[in-house]
Design a protein that fits this description.
The protein is mainly α. The chain has eight helices and no strands. It has helices spanning about 5, 15-25, 35-120, 130-135, 135-225, 235-250, 255-265, 275-285. The longest helix is centred in the middle third of the chain and has 91 residues, at about 135-225.
Amino acid sequence: MENKDLEKFDPSVAELTKMVLATKGITATDLKDKAQLAIVRENRIALKNARVKITKIGKDLRDDANKFASAVIAKEKSLIAIIEPEEDRLEAIEEEAKALIIREERLEKLPARKERLTAIDNRTKWATDDELLEMDSTQFETFFNQCVAENNENLRVQALEEQAEKERIAKQEQDERDAKIKAEQDKKQAELDAKEKKIADERAKIEKEKLEIAHKKEVEDEKKITILGRPITLTDVLLAINKYDEQDGVDIPDKKFEDVMWKWDWDKPYDDQSQETKDFIGNILGVK
């Protein structure tokens, strides 16, 4: 805005300063004094009117200025539109040339970058060549550090997994050994139980046979006691044979006496004679 436009403001600085100086001496010693209050009001309204006038002039000047600014902006854009496309085209050529230089520099660094990445882990394809060529030095170093951190984490996880697998295999092998040992122990225990059962069965059988023999002996003893009331001796046998012969008038061959004599064990009572002897004498005495 030109200075001549600013001069349109009215009143001037000098006039406003004079108005303010004129009112500085106005006071109201008695706020109930209408005359004093009237002087205050009159001067306040004069100042207000000056302020309103200044504001209106300023608004009118701003409107003119805004219209001018809009016209300036429109003219600026129309002029720039003429040259900007060509400027952009030439700038693109320059940028392309810069990018070519940068790419050639990065192509020289590419083998070293790939070698550094391969040194981290040659089994991992960390990035393509084009991706590496898009990185400047700072970006590559950041990417390289990320790859190192990722590989370290992979190694840590892998180590944990391998350790867990070793422990699992060790436990499985130990479980198999324990199961084998237990199976062998169970087998031995089963064999031992079977042997003990067999021995117990045999003992029970022997005990049963003993009981049966004892019972048979008790029965025989009861039969003997029924006949004589006491254990049978050889004398009883001979007397019984003789009595049997006298009562029935049966001739007992001498061979029977010889048999009795030869079969009888002189050192043992009837109960301890051989079964053959007891059967033979039992037949003679009628003891079954």
